[in-house]
Design brief:
The longest helix is centred in the last third of the chain and has 11 residues, at 170-180. 45% of the residues are buried. The strands form three sheets. Strands 6-5-4-3-2-1-15 form a seven-stranded mixed β-sheet, with helices on one face. It has six helices and 15 strands. It is an alpha/beta fold and 225 residues long. It has helices at residues 52-55, 58-65, 73-81, 146-152, 170-180, 200-209; strands at 2-7, 10-14, 20-23, 44-46, 68-72, 85-89, 94-97, 100-106, 111-112, 119-120, 123-129, 132-136, 157-161, 184-188, 222-224. Helix 5 packs parallel to helix 6 (200-209). The structure holds nickel (II) ion (NI) and manganese (II) ion. Nickel (II) ion (NI) binds at residues 49, 51, 54, 109, 139, 166.
Length: 225
């Protein structure tokens, strides 16, 4: 299984069987993305919430690739109304798809559909895939229930926002990691715009003081999980 980072909160997971799972595809309007929407293909698109820097190019990719979009209910209804395939879920619920299991959990943040018509919930996504558990936190502030997530699941890879202003900054993100105790921490949601400038090296040092591993992915880098 491979994990590719496009920058911001956007990742692509490619399974051993070739299935592709795209997360928060903010590509064409993203000044740091090494690829555009038309360069990417995916059978599944996972969305943490409806903000433009996460929803991004979802509709164009989903329509071109006939992708199934998996996300919180209000956003899924919007996607279906726009003519793409969507599977609605909500916080606390899990569902087994043919590629693996998805569980949505809370994120301390907001969400709105791209047409600004419907307010929904921002989420984090736990992905149970092959023999790994991957937790993409979406956009979130720090909250104590992350300790419960750490107790319930042995997270292998944690994607954690560190850019501050809209999400946790480095200090709160490191505290979140101490609650969850993942096998490997991957920082995200930084340096896309001036207002979320952060040094991932500073974050990595803080995480390593907690005796946790972290890996800084370059924009466009792909690793084996
Ligand atoms: Ni957001
Ligand atoms: Mn965001």
């Amino acid at each position: 299984m491979k994990l590719k980072y496009f920058s911001h909160s956007s990742f692509l997971i490619t399974l051993d069987n070739g299935a592709r799972i795209l997360i928060d595809p903010f590509l064409d309007g993203n000044p740091t993305s090494p690829v555009g929407a038309s360069d990417v293909e995916a059978e599944y698109i996972l969305l943490t919430h409806g903000h433009g820097d996460h929803f991004g190019d979802t509709l164009s990719i989903a329509k071109r690739c006939d992708s199934l979009c998996i996300c919180e209910n209000e956003l899924a209804s919007y996607i279906a109304a726009k003519g793409a395939k969507a599977h609605p879920m909500h916080i606390g619920g899990a569902y087994s798809f043919d590629f693996g299991k998805i569980k949505l959990i809370q994120a301390l943040h907001s969400s709105v559909t791209p047409d600004k018509e419907c307010i929904g919930s921002a989420t984090g996504i736990i992905i149970f895939i092959q023999d790994k558990i991957i937790y993409h936190m979406g956009d979130t502030g720090l909250f104590l229930d992350l300790k419960l997530i750490g107790e319930l699941y042995s997270i292998d890879y944690l994607m954690v926002p560190i850019g501050d202003n809209f999400t946790m900054g480095i200090d709160d993100a490191a505290r979140a990691c101490s609650y969850i105790k993942p096998g490997c921490v991957i920082p995200m949601h930084y340096n896309t715009f001036d207002v979320i400038k952060a040094n991932p090296g500073d974050f990595k040092k803080k995480v390593e003081k907690l005796d946790l591993n972290s890996q800084i992915l370059q924009f466009g880098q792909e690793i084996n999980l």
